[in-house]
Design brief:
Length: about 140
């Protein structure tokens, strides 16, 4: 030791220990935001706000982490992130094509009458419903 220097006091060691502890706690606190930004998550800014505002609660931190780990941009996507299903500001438009359903298999009037009778026996339709459907079937068959 140098003649004028003093050994580190217990207070200095405590300050260093607390500083390292706060640094580790801070890194753990912002892990959801780090994950979201590293993954280029479409909702990374919202995750950051939730992480900062509610991260002190275990639930808020957990929500932010789960959201950061969920769906992110698909490779080659030009969308602004609506595909994650959780984007609050963008709804991706998905084009769909409406097509007619395939035709039902054709049954003979006898098969249809047997099917209606089976429904009547099982109690799925009443006698009045059976009579009405039977009359409609027989009038269409002639």
């Amino acid at each position: 030791m140098h003649p004028g220097s003093q050994p580190p006091s217990d207070d200095t060691a405590l300050v260093i220990f607390l500083g390292i502890g706060f640094l580790i706690a801070g890194i753990i606190y912002i892990i959801p935001s780090i994950v979201a930004f590293r993954r280029n998550h479409p909702n990374r800014w919202i995750i950051l706000v939730i992480n900062i505002a509610f991260g002190s609660t275990v639930i808020g931190w957990g929500i932010a982490l789960v959201w950061a780990l969920r769906a992110a941009h698909r490779v080659g996507s030009t969308s602004s992130g609506g595909e994650s299903g959780l984007n609050l500001f963008v709804n991706d438009v998905k084009k769909i094509q409406v097509v007619d359903p395939p035709p039902l298999p054709q049954t003979s009037p006898v098969q249809e009458l047997e099917r209606l009778h089976e429904l009547l026996v099982r109690g799925a339709i009443s006698q009045v419903e059976f009579d009405g459907l039977k009359a409609k079937l027989l009038s269409g068959a002639s």
